[in-house]
Structure prediction request, 279 residues.
Amino acid sequence: METSRAVFNFLFLAYCDAYDALDPTGNITIKWDVISWTPDGYVAVVTMFNFQQYRHIQAPGWTLGWTWAKKEVIWAMMGAQTTEQGDCSKYKGNIPHCCKKDPTVVDLLPGTPYNHRLQIAARGDPESPYLASVVAGANKNSYAPLVQCTSHMCPIRIHWHVKLNYKEYWRVKVTITNFNYRMNYSQWNLVVQHPNLDNLTQIFSFKYKPLTPYAAINDTAMLWGVKFYNDFLNQAGPLGNVQSELLFRKDASTFTFEKGWAFPRRIYFNGDNCVMPPP
Prediction:
């Protein structure tokens, strides 16, 4: 048995992208259903479906925005609320919930009664409002990263350590460290692309699912924590890390430690790209 101490650190870099080659059919679908008509408008139910395999909306929740085609207003909402009311000064007595032409809608706080989670009552023309954006929400006062002082000042680090080199196998230790004092990552996931994943023999303390966007090529894996054990990545501090080990069978025709072959080609944390830090 030979040992090796080759190590790579990947740092978390948040970004937004419309298409992901590793999840080619992933999308967020928005349905706008008019379910009844009123004398001056209609009642609609708006439903969002997340069909992405490894991107989910982190706390504090989703944000949905659109632009009205004409002079519609939102009289009442259940299940969500707008961030601003806008100029409703022309209305007397019964005041609309929101008069903005481009309302921004956010999720309700946890613990809201279920009878408040239903529908939107809008006034005006129901004709396919333009859906301007669907993005992960962020309250800058509460959720802006407060990062532990490090040389890289990044909120997440993925540590890929080539730990052991056997005759027919090789072993990797993966550690995810949270340096963000303001974020507990619940139900996190890690997507790894490496040519030897087709010979992954055993994985310890993480769950594993192969992703095969190119059908016959099995070089991409989604890893996530075991429920109630390590699926919750606490904020920076002693409990701010999770780790696992991966055992690979060697393919003699391709295996090498030269030119960085043993390290991932691509790393995603919660669907966001992780990159090597600058030298």
Residues 31 and 47 are 5 Å apart (CA to CA).
